[in-house]
Structures are given as C-alpha cells and as structure tokens.
Amino acid sequence: MIGQRVTMPGRPRRVRPARWRRRGALVLCVLAAQASASGLSQGAPAGTVSLASNLTALNDGFAWAKATALGYAFEGDPVGKWYEAALPGREAFCMRDVSHQVHGGLALGLSEHTENMLRKFATNIAASRQWTSYWEIDRHDRPAPVDYRSDEDFWYNLPANFDVVDAAWRAFEWTGNRAYVEEPAFETFYRRSLTSYVEAWDANGDGLMESPEANGFRGIPTYWEGGGPKALTGADLVAAQYAANRSYAALLRASGRSVEAARFAVEAARLQRVYNDDWWNPATGRFYTAVVQDGSFDPSSQALAQIYPLYFGIVRSGARRRQVVEGLPDAGNVELSSYMAEVYYKNGRVERAFEALMTQLDPNLERRTYPENPFTAVGTIVHHLVGVRPLASQGVVETVPQLPGALEWIEVADLPLLDGMVTVRHDATVDGRWTALTNSGPEALQWRPAFSGAHDCLQVLRAGESLPVAASSRSTDWGGVESYVELAVASGEMLKVGVPAACTHS
CB under 8 Å to 230, separation ≥6 — which residues? Predict the structure, then answer.
C-alpha cells in the first residue's frame, strides 16, 4: 500500500526509511524480500521453469525475476504456504498484489501457495464488515495489524473482492484445480462478493458501488489513493466488478451450472454497457476517472483509471479502445508499470509491450525488487510473450506467440500447467514461423497452436512426417485475426506447427 497514507486513529504513525516511501498513488502492497524468513523447502516442486532466447538481456532478466520471486515464497508459518505481496516488513500478502501475481506464481510452480492465499481471502469474508475480507493477511494467519484494529476500524479498497474472484478463475484455468470451482468457501466468497457485497455498498441502488468520503479508509472506492477529487465510484471499481461477474459466470459454467451463469454474464454485459456508454468523455478522448462525491464525473487524467479498465477488459473493441491504448500516459511507479506490458499485449501492441516488459527487467529500474514486479514479469513473459495459455475449462493448452521483431527464437522449458509440464519453443525464420511443444506430463494433452494472420493451412511436423492441416480462424479482441489447429500430443511427444511459405494465406 501507499506508505504515506492517513494513519489509523489511535495508532502511532510508522516512519519508514525514505526508500520505502510513497512514489505515486497506486495501492502498493509491495515489499522487500525478508532474507531471514524460512524460504522454500529443498524438496518443493517450484522453480522448474526456465527461459532461453537469442536476446541476452531477456534471458538474464527472466533469470533474475525467477530467482527474486522464488526468494519471496515461504512455508512453515501459521498461515501456511504463501509469498510476499505487502509493504516492507509486513511479512504479509494483500488482495490486489496476490491477484496480480497469480500467473507468475503459477508459472513458477507455486500453485499451492497461490491456492492457500486466495482461500484465506475467501474464508474471511464477513457480514460484520459489509462483506469485505481482510485486505492484508500476515504470516501469523491474522489480519495485518497495521491495517486492521476491529470490524469497525480497518483499511479496505473496494475493488479487492472482485480482483480475487477474477484471479481465482485465472488460477483454475491454469491448474484445473477443482477446488476453485467446487469448494464451498470459494463459492460462498464469489456469490457474496457479487450479491451481498454489492448491495451493502450500493446506497443508490444502481448496481454500482459507492463509498462517501466520510467512510475514510474503511471502503475506498478505487485503488487510487492520491490527490484530486475524492471518488465516490472509481473507474477501476466498475471495471473490476465487470471482470468478477464475467469470471464467476465462467466458474459456474465450469461446474455445469449454465443457467446460474447466465445471470452473472448478463450483469457483466450491463456493467460493460454502462461504462462504455456513460463513462466516455468525448472532449478528452478517454474515459472518465471516477464519479465524485457530488455525483458528477471527474474528467482529470489519471493513468490508473485508464490502465485498469483495459487490464480487466471492460473497454469494448473498436476505435475508442485503440485511442485509449495509444494515449496511455506514463504509469509513474513500478507497481502500476507492472500492468503496462500485459495491457499492451492484450491489445496487440507487441513492440510496445516488449519495451514495457524490458523496462520491468532493467537492472536500473528504481525499486525493481518489489515482488509485484518480478512476479508479473515472469507471468507476462510466459502467458503473453511466449503466449502459453492453459485453458482447463476447454481441456486444452493454447499457444499464441507475440514476438517482437528482435526476437528470432525463444523457448520456455519445464513449465508446470494443468496436470503436467510442457516445453514450448517459437522460431521466426526465413522459412516461416514455427512453434514446437513437448509434452513432459504423464497424460496426453490437447494443443491449440495459433498464429497471427489469416492462413488457409498450418504445417504439422510429427515423427518425421510433414502434413498441411486446414486451419480455423478467429478474430482477436483488438481487431486482428489468428489462425489455429488443434492436435493431440501424447506423453513424451514433441510436435511442431508452423506457417511456411507452402501454406497459402491472406
């Protein structure tokens, strides 16, 4: 969280060293490594993933991010397995940071840590706190004392419940862990967060949450804590609520409850419609930052208020979305910057995304070692740059490379996902673009290799034989086209698929 925040009444102000003080107005929930803590056990199945490419700076950056992130993972404490995601010295994890660090944690093999932390947030939701959870939990398995004194006196940023719901869906897709779909504690948290929680904070009954300034830190309606008009409802809160409804609908479908899922899918569509229709400011060519205390819109420019709606996916595809992406301001601090590469990748801006990613890995980056930075760097490299997308709900592993011009080849090896492990390599050569997948898991898997562009066929190399296979195509969120095939890959088998000159394309 922000170091220079309002001190909770009755509590002496904690003075932190200058290097930890506020550098922007995002909820930081970030930390320095506690080198004396227990660390991972020698036998923990974490950290198998590795990366190699033709770019030394990328290779070195990934190795640094991997080692740094794993240094923040612990077990043997009362809270169970966990990794750092809170301010320095807290020995704790908070809801925003954990939600954002999920993909990196899972790529690093920290699935049990991730599940445990998300469950801790889920089990601590309570009516006595208007259906909030504990914003931050420490290694002693208690709400972090700096943020919590009682159910009437605590710190909470309202997008947090929604962020966790969305993170649980992404964790399910990566792991296939049915606990996220079937366990009562998770189900209760999802449903309460999208019903009772909204009702408790929706004073005017419009389906959007509000928190008047008088609430202080007990219900901040945004992740923004900086200057400017005080929000009643932040743009990031609306975007997070949309994402949570979308993700809960997907979780319900994964459990076979399609009729129930429709209700939340409809609500997600309503929120998206409200945001895109009502929150657009034609005078500035961007969306409003917030609804402020008098009910009017805040037209001021704020990076967080533009980045989070793109991150959560509430902005519709089209000219407005392109305009917002092209006009994104500088993030201003390392925490918000850790979203930039993801946002650019999600919008097909591959070169800008890679530039933002390399900024995260730059040894000269100020406050580079804050956990959110290395964790999300690992997650972004694996999930977006290499484009490995486990989709448990579909029973498939998808690969969609997003390589910049400078990257001739890249390989991610021994990546844990679903019930197994894969190695994925991409090559961009004069002979075409190729992806190879090796299935090191115990069972066969379904693989969906995809490539940018509309192609009539893709070439499949299997056991020394080369065969053109008719490709299907689909549109992307940002208006592009991708072509793909779907193949079964046996345990221990390696397949290679590509777009050679022999395949006609448009």
Answer: 213, 292, 293
- Nearest to 345, CA basis, from 375, 301, 389, 304: 389
DSSP state of 381: I
Do 90 and 136 meet the contact criterion of CB atoms below 8 Å apart? Answer: yes
DSSP, collapsed to helix, strand or coil, labels residue 260 as helix
Ramachandran sector of residue 237 (left: φ over 0; alpha: ψ -120 to 50; beta: rest): alpha
Q: Is 151 exposed, middle or buried (0-12, 13-18, 19+ CB in 10 A)?
A: middle
Domains in the chain with CATH codes: 18-385 (1.50.10.10), 396-500 (2.60.40.1180)
Structure tokens at 384: 């977006």
Rounded CA-CA distance 147/448 in Å is: 45
Q: What is the pLDDT of residues 201-256, one digit of tens each?
A: 999 999 999 999 999 999 999 999 888 889 999 999 999 999 999 999 999 999 99
- Residue 295: is its pLDDT beyond 90? yes
419-450 confidence digits (pLDDT tens): 999 999 999 988 899 999 999 999 999 999 99
